[in-house]
Structure to design on (229 residues):
């Protein structure tokens, strides 16, 4: 039997796509402001807060977002993952994340969360302290700083693998993933689906505002910094 003809289908909602590209920017910003002679601690903190806000947003969007953005849609059981890895499952069965991509998403989000949270407790030992630095002992702060450094290396490896995988699917398997993360649309053997509508954009904005408020509150509730002379 002939497969259903291909038609254009919206797979990624706008808030998810905006989240993705803002995340790329905020990670690059955090990295650049932490390197070489241009170490700009204040700017580094703000990029870190943006990253934290985006992760909180994504956790909410994993519950309230459109079908393919929800954790329940793309976090598949180990059995399904193994079947996919053994090549027994077609990529076309998954309009959004495939089973491997779904778990890779969780790993990336967790690494970013650890990076942003540990940053809150550490100090550059010059003048800039993360907002919660005074709430932990120097020993704990040093330990968390080591995690901040080590986790960043893991993050770089994970991002490198992520970009490598996307390029592999794009150019070897011929799946236009990159354009889909830009436009939200893929051509699939599926019945055409209408746009997701404006409601998702409004819901996305609401989730982003709540995530921003949560970060602001977290920083606002930080204890007074220690003043040592
Ligand atoms: C280096 C920083 C990057 C980070 C931290 C990052 C993070 C992520 C995350 C968390 C997702 C899952 C989306 C979600 O459901 O929340 C994702 C998906 C995706 N990213 Fe990235 N990304 C990065 C760079 C890039 C670049 C440079 C490209 C393009 C070349 C890219 C292309 C994609 C695509 C196409 C998907 C969807 C994959 C799929 O269809 O399953 N990413 N990325
Ligand atoms: C996810 C976002 C973040 C990334 C990718 C990131 C990355 C990095 C990296 C790579 C360094 C090492 C710089 C070096 O080689 O000396 C660093 C240092 C530092 N980060 Fe972050 N960071 C993030 C978030 C934060 C946040 C939210 C804060 C605090 C509000 C923070 C506070 C610091 C401080 C104080 C240092 C200096 C530590 C020292 O000099 O010993 N970071 N960060």
């Amino acid at each position: 039997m002939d497969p259903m003809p291909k038609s254009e289908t919206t797979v990624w909602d706008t808030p998810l796509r905006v989240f993705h590209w803002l995340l790329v920017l905020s990670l690059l910003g955090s990295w650049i402001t932490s390197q070489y002679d241009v170490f700009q601690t204040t700017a580094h903190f703000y990029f870190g807060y943006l990253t934290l806000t985006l992760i909180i947003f994504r956790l909410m969007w994993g519950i309230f977002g459109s079908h393919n953005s929800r954790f329940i849609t793309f976090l598949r059981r180990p059995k399904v993952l193994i079947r996919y890895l053994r090549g027994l499952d077609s990529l076309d069965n998954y309009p959004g994340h495939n089973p491997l991509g779904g778990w890779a998403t969780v790993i990336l989000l967790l690494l970013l969360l650890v990076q942003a949270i540990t940053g809150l407790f550490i100090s550059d030992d010059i003048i800039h302290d993360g907002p919660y630095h005074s709430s932990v002992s120097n020993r704990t702060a040093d330990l968390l700083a080591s995690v901040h450094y080590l986790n960043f290396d893991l993050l770089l490896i994970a991002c490198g693998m992520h970009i490598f995988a996307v390029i592999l699917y794009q150019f070897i398997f011929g799946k236009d993933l990159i354009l889909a993360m830009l436009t939200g649309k893929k051509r699939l053997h599926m019945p055409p689906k209408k746009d997701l509508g404006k409601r998702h954009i409004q819901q996305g904005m609401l989730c982003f505002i709540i995530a921003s408020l949560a970060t602001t509150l977290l920083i606002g509730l930080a204890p007074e910094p220690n003043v040592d002379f």
